[in-house]
Amino acid sequence: MFQLTAQKAKLSDVNPRAEKHGEDNMLACDLKFEVTAANDILSQFDPDLRAAFYYLNGHKTQPDLFETPGNLPDLRFPFIDKPLAWGKEFAGYRLEIAHGIDQSSAIFLDPVHVDGFRFEMQEGGTVVLTMRVQCHPDAPTIGMLCDKIQGDVELTLTPPPALPVGDDSDK
């Protein structure tokens, strides 16, 4: 299951908006993040995704790369020139953005909805992952998020706890 832990990312956009909840308006926000990571992040979306786009070509790579087990640094389709869209959505996640000097001052948003995934595969085994996080922050938190636009942040995205087998509480 997709998750990130203390991952360096760029907060490329903060879009505050209002959502209707019955007759009332509720503050909502779309956050756009860009994460540059090793291509094994693709395996969190599907176990076969990384091997579909990367392989090990001994004629092109550096000899020291062969010593890393499972390393797939070479693009299988180098002429794909646009990011690949991935339609999977994840609900009920918890977002933590490091802020201040310790965890007690971090920005916590729970629950959040994560979608809008785009994968930009790069030669050498790197993927630029872009995603949208939809959330409902309070007004002070919007200010802290806006202060981080176009800056690097450290984020943690935690999936919701799994329901025990046989638990039908969501019906």
Give a written overview of the molecule.
The protein is mostly beta strands. It has a domain at 4-46 and 83-158. It is built from 2 helices and 9 strands; from the N terminus they run ββαββββββαβ. The strands form 2 sheets. It has a 6-stranded antiparallel beta barrel. The chain has a two-stranded antiparallel sheet with strand order 3-4.
Chart the SSEs and their pairings.
Blueprint: E1 4-21, E2 24-38, H1 49-53, E3 54-55, E4 74-75, E5 84-86, E6 90-97, E7 107-122, E8 126-135, H2 139-146, E9 151-158
Antiparallel strand pairs: 1-2, 1-9, 2-8, 3-4, 5-7, 6-7, 6-9, 7-8
Short overview:
The protein is mainly beta. Helices cover 8% and strands 48% of the residues.
How would you describe this structure in keywords?
mainly beta, six-stranded antiparallel β-barrel, two-stranded antiparallel ribbon, 2 helices, 9 strands, globular
Name the overall outline. globular
Please give the share of residues in helix.
under 10%
Q: How many separate helices?
A: 2
Element order: H for helix, E for strand: EEHEEEEEEHE
